[in-house]
Design brief:
mainly alpha, two-stranded antiparallel sheet, globular, disordered C terminus
Length: 337
């Protein structure tokens, strides 16, 4: 009982507004995260997907652990048992997300995998009012609809062509191909990352960033390493180039990208953060053009443009009333004391 009262008392204090607007920080995170699919493809030339996922979270945890123990030990000790349990649960969901999504890249295209895994806003939007008490504004709903419509167009562009009209293969042919396995794995990744985002939104109002992400990434690393060993895979014996890709994967999309998302969850609703993640397929496409020489068709570019419009529309509310959101949340928490 005393523990719950402590949690409420710490949560009631509204977060101090950052010097840099969360939307700008999220933009940086999206660019960093969009390098993931390309780095994973490079690493998959030798390393299995579970090895890649375990290295991504394991290396990130190794970087964060000294910072946590040297500068944030008091904040770690201040975490309640309930907060620790939720943090570990978030790590478990994050592990499943990476295990399924990275594996999906073995079976389907980068565009389809990245777009499908970024349908997480649909699940966040459906569950946030129930689990977090966050109401959806008209701008958020409209932005979500546009972004998901754009994502659908990007997926269709992978199997369909525009020649005097949209021409797609029979559904039976699509279902019998290996791409459907990758698509389903990417959708599982979307569901689990939605749960991860919502837990983060709840905890980040009372738990500071470094303790939260270190425990979350660490828990995910333990789960992924266990899955890797059970599958009979080894983290050793790869060429130095593969280890370079794995290190960059931990540095850019994980430490910079995902950490940015967790930082933003302290200031923005979970639905808005998850919608912003839909910009990752757009950034991934741009990087694929410049690095891999993959020029997307016009249909895919049109879908990407709609995604950007959706993100812009959905971001209207936090841009204008971010302080009001935090004040409202603080009022709700204070009323529960």
């Amino acid at each position: 009982m005393q523990e719950n009262h402590s949690l409420v008392r710490r949560s009631a204090k509204p977060p101090i507004q950052p010097r840099i607007h969360p939307t700008l920080v999220l933009s940086f995170g999206i660019v960093a995260s969009s390098t993931a699919s390309i780095l994973i493809r490079f690493a998959q030339t030798e390393a299995p997907s579970l090895v890649i996922a375990a290295y991504r979270l394991g290396l990130a945890t190794l970087v964060l652990a000294p910072v946590l123990l040297s500068r944030h030990r008091s904040e770690l000790k201040a975490m309640t048992q309930h907060e620790i349990h939720l943090t570990l649960a978030a790590g478990g969901l994050l592990a499943i997300h990476f295990a399924t999504w990275i594996t999906s890249l073995e079976y389907t295209t980068v565009a389809s995998s990245v777009v499908l895994v970024q349908t997480s806003p649909l699940f966040v939007a459906l569950l946030s009012p129930l689990l977090l008490g966050e109401s959806l504004t008209r701008f958020t709903v409209l932005g979500l609809t546009l972004a998901l419509a754009g994502s659908l167009i990007v997926v269709l562009s992978d199997v369909c062509v525009w020649a005097g009209g949209l021409q797609c293969p029979p559904v039976a042919d699509f279902l019998q191909g290996i791409a459907i396995k990758g698509d389903l794995l990417a959708i599982v990744g979307a569901v689990t990352v939605a749960g991860y985002i919502m837990i983060g939104r709840r905890l980040r109002s009372s738990v500071t960033l470094i303790p939260y992400i270190t425990l979350t990434y660490g828990a995910a690393a333990v789960v992924l390493t266990t899955l890797m060993l059970v599958a009979g895979q080894t983290p050793f014996g790869y060429t130095p180039q593969i280890y370079l890709w794995l290190a960059l994967l931990a540095l850019l999309p994980q430490l910079f990208g995902h950490t940015t998302y967790n930082w933003a969850l302290r200031y923005l609703p979970a639905a808005v953060v998850s919608i912003s993640l839909l910009g990752e397929p757009v950034s991934s496409t741009i990087l694929a053009i410049s690095i891999l020489g993959e020029t997307p068709p016009a249909l895919r570019l049109s879908g990407a443009a709609i995604i950007l419009v959706g993100i812009t529309v959905a971001s209207h509310r936090p841009n204008s009333t971010m302080g009001a959101i935090n004040t409202h949340e603080s009022t709700k928490k204070s009323s529960r004391q």
